[in-house]
UniProtKB/TrEMBL annotation:
Keywords: Kinase, Transferase
Species annotation: Staphylococcus massiliensis S46
Family label: Belongs to the glycerate kinase type-1 family.
A GO BP entry: organic acid phosphorylation
Gene Ontology MF: a single term: glycerate kinase activity
Keyword Plastid among UniProt keywords: no
Tagged with keyword Kinase: yes
Record-linked NCBIfam families: glycerate kinase (TIGR00045)
Highest taxon of source: Bacteria
Entries under InterPro entries matching the protein: Glyc_kinase_flavodox-like_fold, Glycerate_kinase, Glycerate_kinase_RE-like, Glycerate_kinase_sf
Listed name of the protein: Glycerate kinase
Amino acid sequence: MKIVIIPSGFKESLSAEEVGLSIERGIEKVESNHDVTVIPMVDGGEGFVNTITKLKEGRIINTHVTGPTGQKIDSYFGMFNENGVETAVIEMAAIAGLRHVPINQRNPLFTTTYGVGETIIEALNHNAKRILIGCGDSGTSDGGVGMAQAIGVKFYDDAHLLIDVTCGAEINQIHHMDLSQIDERVKDIDINVAVNWTNVLCGPQGVARVFGPQKGASPMEVELLSDNLEHLADLIFSHTGREVATINGGGASGGLGAGLVGFLDAKLHPRFDIIMEYIQVSEAIQHADLVVTAEGCIDYQTPNGKIPSEVARIAKSFEKPVIAFAGTIGKNAKINYQSGIDAFTSIIPKPTSLEKSILDAPKWLENCAENAFRHITIGFDLAQQLKAEQEKRSLKK
């Protein structure tokens, strides 16, 4: 049997590659002769840089940049050469991801994307002519103002005094912007951004209202942040003519998507579409007998461009069956049957703590894959027996 495993990572637990290898080990416990291919998939969040850079045989550049709480952190980005073009791969999660925000400091009003801007400048220092940015797993909601300051944007208050604005809580202080001092080198490069295409910056489904509570904001703080992001969208339009309030993907990573468009004229792409230009999976799916995918949580949001649903969409175009493993099964998960996932299951065997789930995830995933493939083997054997019996009956006739 040809099996292709195309998993996402499990946030703060396993990389996509580790997830794939755990599933492969579980399959091998049942049958070692299966033809198994593992293709780690990323959605712009954790693991984005390492996966793309490894596949492109590039190199990792270590950095020391401003983290989401304003403290310096160790981070990195990737570089590879493709068709003679030096390309940088930047992962928002590695710079200003939620994992870099201590639980007692999780409030999107006061976190910053400044380090993302610093990393863009560092990529330019390494002669990048193209930049690919993955937006996902963020711990910020500053609309990209922190990033903007780091690349040279100047902000002024209503008295035309220069002000320091690096987080969402301070956006309402901005009355004027000066984009003339942005690093000149960004004008000569293409910046492509992998985003969740359904996320928008402003409105009833704006990023502050949808994701603010998950990042630690109170209802009152959510509304303040929402108002500030609308103010930022108005400022960007008045200074650049770029409409970012409701563009698809503008709300990605707490509005960083909108900031990258507004300040750098970057191009946003549905994350799976742009990533597919770097990671090819269609051919592997086409020639597989079974497709396996995985995600930290499968729920009603999974069909909105997340890896399991996108893998299933391609698989169904080739009429291939799809099973999915998840850390948890969330609200209205059954909707995923409509997106092409034929079966899904949680890897967690019993009630447990988050800490233990993270620690034991590799073992649980391996065991879950083994159990699933024992069931598949039973079904396969029954099918073979029924086929043999039908052939016998046909011969007797």
